[in-house]
Each structure stands twice: as structure tokens, then as C-alpha cells.
Known about the structure:
By secondary structure, the chain is of the alpha/beta class. The chain folds into 3 domains: 28-156, 3-Layer(aba) Sandwich (Rossmann fold); 165-307, Rossmann fold, CATH 3.40.50; 321-419, no CATH class. It is 40% helix and 10% strand. It is built from 17 helices and 10 strands. The longest helix is centred in the middle third of the chain and has 20 residues, at 161-180. The protein is globular and about 75 Å long. The two termini are 43 Å apart. The structure holds NADPH dihydro-nicotinamide-adenine-dinucleotide phosphate, pyruvic acid and magnesium ion (MG). Pyruvic acid binds at residues 77, 137, 161-162, 286, 308, 317-318. It is an enzyme of class 1 (oxidoreductase).
Amino acid sequence: MSEDQKQAALDYHAFPIPGKLSVELTKPTATAKDLALAYSPGVAEPVREIAKDPELAYKYTAKGNLVAVISDGSAILGLGNLGPLASKPVMEGKGVLFKCFAGINSVDVEVNAESPQAFIDTVARIADTYGGINLEDIKAPECFEIERTLIEQCSIPVFHDDQHGTAIVTAAGMINALELADKKIENAKIVCLGAGAAAIACMKLLVACGMKRENIFMLDRKGVIHTGREDLNQYKAMFANETDKRTLDDAIDGADVFVGLSGPDLLSSEQLAKMAANPIVFACSNPDPEIKPEIAKATRDDVIMATGRSDYPNQVNNVLGFPFIFRGALDVRATAINEEMKVAAVNALKDLAKEPVTQEVLNAYELDSLEFGPEYIIPKPMDSRLLAVVSGAVAQAAVDSGVARQPFPAHYPLKSIKDVYGN
Length: 423
Ligand SMILES: NC(=O)C1=CN([C@@H]2O[C@H](COP(=O)(O)OP(=O)(O)OC[C@H]3O[C@@H](n4cnc5c(N)ncnc54)[C@H](OP(=O)(O)O)[C@@H]3O)[C@@H](O)[C@H]2O)C=CC1
Ligand SMILES: CC(=O)C(=O)O
Ligand SMILES: [Mg+2]
């Protein structure tokens, strides 16, 4: 970003009031009668009801449309482990996206935990307050155990966005990109730079979609993950190949696909030049991708290129996932976000990219036209149809797979966030 853009970003966060979110009232508070209902003595009535039946918290409190965005700040975007407080702008940002795209209220919780167990204990103790928990920017490998344990301990959906949100959007974009590049998923040779939360989850979901595990070459800071390495955790070990490739230079030679979930400027134009014809490059590190689109396009004109950013075509970013996935999960009161719901989200996203682009989207992106093709492999976050199609697909999958505690909502499909309460 230019110095001007950096200052604009700081000013955006600072003025006219600090931060990006505030709390709004949903009930009248103008008179003493109102206060007698909102607080003492009236508030005692829902207290007594919820004490008798905890399910009534969904009726009498904001729980059912409230998600906690929780981080320890150990993997803030691609900026690294900068601690809980520094993660707050990102967590508030996730709250903005929950609200503006899916009408979901959220609170951000930045946890200063001395160990994964301390983090788990903290979250488990406050979980009942919320309708769902979105874990964010927690580094691997700790994130895997944290999520697994919290899913076990909590009766509400717990979802590590950097794993599953990213994987869902990546899989949707990848299926479309492979089609456009005339490549078959089962034959594609893929290089995944990064072996953390996002990378492991993305590669697992791509394998579930038909990619061959042995065609995936995953790299961490020490190079290619191979069977000869003795320093691998169990998650990286799942992707260890029997190969003599050791470096990104070795792995990228002839690769069909590069997925970057690592850090800035790690793929050179020389390395991109060595990829197969019609290469697919998802340089998804935020805010700075593994290779800049300008450099990639200047290196070769047959590349299908995506980044995690809003200011380039093809934004492969979990913003396309978590707001709508939680919307669908909350509205059927799902106990979990399971594989069926994730696959439903992948299909809804990939299919929407093939529908004609609406004028609303063209206006938002200041474009004259846009259609399914190398510059448009995945819907734009500003596409208001995402709310109906992704939330609807996720809710239906929750009902069909038996994790919904409420029927498919009568007020679906949602046309706008004004409809989320169904009245
Ligand atoms: N577009 C999107 O929607 C999303 C993008 N991301 C991006 O993915 C990246 C990783 O995030 P996340 O998985 O949550 O973080 P983690 O900390 O869990 O993982 C980071 C991984 O990147 C690897 N890595 C870092 N630097 C290098 C390097 N120089 N060479 C090779 N590998 C490297 C690390 O290697 P090692 O294991 O050796 O430490 C680690 O495996 C970030 O840039 C983030 O912005 C994440 C989520 C969503
Ligand atoms: C987008 C996101 O969640 C990340 O880069 O961490
Ligand atoms: Mg994140």
C-alpha cells in the first residue's frame, strides 16, 4: 500500500469514533415503564424462564443471532504472532462482515492465554453466551487441538474460519479454475506453500473433492514436506510425499496449481514461469500475496490468478464463507458445522459464479461487465445472492445430515439481511 493508503486505513479505523463496531438497542428505552421491563423488575421474568429451560435463552436473549469471534492473535492474517490485542482490528473486521453480509451480531474476544489448554478453558466457560463460536487467526498446530476439543465440549457450532472458511472458498474457486484451465482435478499437480491452519484444511478439502494426495507437494519454512523428515507434526505428516524434491524451485517445475497460504512475495516470477501451461495461482496470503498479480500477469498471460484481497479480481477469501455458513447454521440451530454443510457451501459458491452477474455487483466493483472466466472464478463478496444461496444450502445440509435442532426456516430464501428475523 502507498503511504496515502496506509494513512487512509488508519484514519478509517480512528475516525469519527474509534473502531468499526458498536452495540444497538432493539427495544424501547424511553420511559420508566420501558426500563421496568428491560431491567429491574421485568428482567427477572426471562431469568426465571431460562433457569428452568436453557433453550429459552434463544427466545428471550440475543444468543441465537450472536457469534463470538475469538482469537489469541497467534497468526494474524499473514502478519504472524503479534498477540491478542493487535488482532482486535481483524476481529472487529470479521464482526463487520458478519453484520453487513449476514445480519449476524458478534462480539470479538481476544484471549491472552498462556497455553492452548488455558485458551480452551476460557472459551468453554463463556461459550453458552453465544449462538456460535468463530475461532480466528490461531496458529497451527495448536489450532487443530483447540478446535477439536471445543467442538467436543460445546453444544453450539465451533468453527475455525482460517481452516474451514478458507478451505470452502478455495475449493469452490479451484473447481471453477480447473474447469477453465481444462485440467482434471484428479490429475492436477499442486504445490501448497504453507503447512499451517489454512493450508492443511484447504488440502484436506481438495482431496475430498477429488485431488490426489500424492499429487500435492506441501512446503513449510524448511521446504518440501517429505517422508524423510523427522520434524513433522501429525498434521504435516499427512501430506508427506516420498519424493526427492526439496525446495519450492524443485516442486514448482511443471506444477498445474500453486496455492499460497504462507507469507508475502515467496513465489518468484522465475518460479511461476516454470509451471505447466494455464497455471492456476491462488496467492492467498493477506495482506500481501505470495506473488503480486501484476508480476504474475506480466510473467505469463495464461495464468488464472486469485488473491485474498478485495482490490484484485478473484478474491479467494473466507469472507465468502463464514457469514453465510453461520447464518445457515444459526437459523436451524445446528449443533455443529459438519462436512455435509461445508460441501454444500462449496457447491453453492462454485455454482453462483456461473450465474449472470447482477448490476448491483457491477456497480459495487465499478465494472461494465463480468462473466464466468479467468477473471471471475468465484462470486464477489458484495453479491447479495450469497445470503440466499449459501445460507440456504448450509441450512438444508444441516437438516438433511441430522445436526439441525430446528426445521428448515420458513422465511428462507433470504432476500436481504432485513429478513433475518423472519418478520
Ligand atoms: N485468503 C484467505 O481467506 C486466507 C488466507 N490466509 C493466509 O494464509 C497464511 C497462513 O495463515 P494460517 O494458516 O492461519 O497461519 P499458520 O501460522 O497456521 O500457518 C502459517 C504457515 O505458513 C508457513 N510459512 C510461513 N512463512 C513461510 C515461508 N517463508 N516459506 C514457507 N512456508 C512459510 C508456516 O511454516 P512453518 O510451519 O514452517 O512455520 C506455516 O506452515 C496467512 O498469510 C493468511 O493471511 C489464512 C486464512 C484465510
Ligand atoms: C482472511 C483471513 O482470515 C486471514 O488472512 O487470516
Ligand atoms: Mg484469519
